[in-house]
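Z., the sequence and structure:
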Amino acid sequence: MDILQGPAKANRLLGEVWSNHRYDLMQTLTLRQRFRLVRFTRGFGPEEGPVILDRSRVFILPTGAGLAFALMLLVMLFGSINYNNSLGHMFSYLLGSMAMVSIFHTYRNLAMLGFTVGKVRPVYAGERAGFGIQVTNPDVYARTGILLESANQPAVSIELCPRQTSSVTLYRDTTRRGVLSLGRCRVSSCYPLGLFRAWSHLDLSMHCLVYPRPGPRRPLPQATVYKPNQSGDKGRGEDDFSGFRPYRAGDSLRHVFWKAAAREQTLLTKQFGGDRVDELWLDWRDLDALDTEARLSQLCRWVLDASHDRLCYGLRLPGVEIGVASGDAHKQRCLETLARFE
């Protein structure tokens, strides 16, 4: 699901794309495709990335301030012509030329930026999902005044030094479990004068797994059974005390025999037998009084509680059964199953 391991890999991926990129995308687009309105309003996508903002992706139009500036220049020019004012002509042409040159700088501020997908961490329903995006500036000049925004969320400002890769995070609110996609976002810039706005649409294929919201705390089911542990009594269990051994670096402080340490004796570590393992089944059928989402929320809470207590537990859902196990990987598997249920 996620996807990149830092700026080094982002630079390598984008380098491979840039090495084969020859500004030829416009030749591959038909005349009809070039002037389709959807290309200006929605862009391409969803795309796996990396995405490079070449000349077929960056668009530019005057801002409101730019239109007012153009109107002011026309008034100045007509007044200069009417009164034959040389100084007025000079200022009109000077300001007009500055505005025309700013078009190039506004466009160049976005052109050839590279975007690659970054890390996306699972969240619980109700939390904000963060989508990491890595932005790369391949040129020898800095990029400034760039905004990256998604629907109904505040824009993120981006400043890039020459040949720099920077990580930014876009957030989306979550209201329900499941798989949440980032959707379409827009990168834009009004640099340097604010008279023109260059923009491009991004639709990176990024998804965040949203776990159910943990339900209220309830006692875990009592249908706990015991089975033999094939590892035998090797001191790796947590059920039965089986003796002491000398302390070794890295031993849990909860297992240190502190009474011996208080008597200034040799530091010892308690050993526990591994001959029994608790098996706990978290069963959908135990929650018949609740609706579907409430059941999933309660099962999510039980998974978290059982994992916190380091119990061996399994999960039963309609059509799905995850065997008894323990550990972080088992917890993540159970939570993902709850998130993707039906």
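The first strand starts at residue 51 and ends at 52. The chain has three domains: 39-211, 213-229+276-342, 237-274.

Let me know what you think.
H.
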